[in-house]
Design goal:
This is GP-PDE domain-containing protein. InterPro entries: GP_PDE_dom (IPR030395), PLC-like_Pdiesterase_TIM-brl (IPR017946). By secondary structure, the protein is of the alpha/beta class. It is built from 11 helices and 12 strands. A 10-stranded mixed sheet has the order 1-2-12-11-10-9-8-7-3-4. A two-stranded antiparallel sheet has the order 5-6.
């Protein structure tokens, strides 16, 4: 607890059932800043934060740290990522909320972003989630799997691979011994509306639970389950699976009642772009 209490950017908040980790979505500490800032990665690594980056396979079988399949308008580039080699993205930058390029947030390969971590002190609780993005109809090439494994070599015990695409995430984890596996079933829910029933969603995850240590659930799905009297998060804990609630940012759809429901449901991690504000709101409950 001491590490984050000494920082202006918290990494966890005390809940009724112990600490709730505050995962820095896209490495953000403020909603308006550009994603994937190198300084935030270094800061979170030293403070012991849960950190998240998105990765997309490029045309030459490398991984780029990008959220969207097109470079524009969120970066200074243009073009579709799966059709471009990683070298063609050199010199590009991610933009902040005002559209300004951030020199601290260049478009980098996975290897390029994480390489400095090997030279920096790491707090024991620090972890880095690789949120695997995969386009419909695209197959993850073996070369990209090998690229990820090489990029995080020596850091595996801090790596979590999470995705809607569980089979491909399993391939990455198998190539990174020591990494943990997370599953986000919300894409499946969008394709199969019956999974909105929390008991059916639990069964869906249970059938796929081998090796899974984290379930990424949209926060409103958790709230709906709790309001229906079905303890989805607690039942997942019984299976050895912790729940991450995403993406929780202050606004009209996030109330004290929702935050209270999430922490009382025994959510172990909250994904947010504004960890300081969510820390304050949960502390004030």
């Amino acid at each position: 607890m001491a590490a984050f209490e000494m920082s202006n950017t918290p990494v966890a908040v005390e809940g009724p059932y112990g600490p709730v980790r505050l995962k820095w979505h896209k490495l953000r500490t403020h909603l308006a800043e550009a994603p994937f800032k190198r300084s935030n990665l270094a800061l979170g690594w030293q403070l012991g934060a849960s950190l998240e980056i998105d990765i997309l396979a490029t045309a030459d079988g490398r991984f780029a740290v990008l959220h969207d399949p097109t470079l524009g308008p969120s970066t200074t580039g243009r073009g579709r990522v799966p059709r471009m080699p990683i070298a063609s993205m050199r010199g590009l930058f991610h933009r902040d909320a005002d559209g300004a390029p951030d020199p601290d947030a260049p478009v980098l390969s996975l290897a390029g972003l994480v390489a400095p971590l090997r030279r920096q002190p790491r707090a024991p609780s620090a972890n880095l989630q690789l949120d695997l993005k995969l386009l419909e109809g695209h197959t993850l090439p073996d070369s990209a799997v090998a690229d990820a494994a090489a990029a995080v070599a020596g850091l595996a015990d801090a790596i979590v691979v999470g995705s809607h695409h569980l089979d491909d995430a399993r391939r990455l984890v198998a190539a990174i011994p020591g990494a943990r596996l997370g599953y986000d079933p919300m894409l499946a829910v969008s394709r199969e509306p019956g999974l909105r029933d929390p008991e059916r969603l639990l069964r869906h995850i249970e059938r796929r639970r081998t090796g899974v240590s984290l379930a990424y659930l949209r926060f409103d799905a958790i709230v709906t389950a709790e309001n229906q009297g079905f303890p989805l998060v607690a039942r997942l804990l019984d299976l050895g699976i912790e729940t991450d609630a995403w993406t929780v940012n202050p606004g009209w759809d996030i109330s004290d009642a929702i935050l209270r429901t999430l922490v009382e449901a025994k959510v172990r991690q909250v994904t947010t772009d504004v960890p300081s504000e969510i820390f304050r709101l949960i502390r004030s409950l």
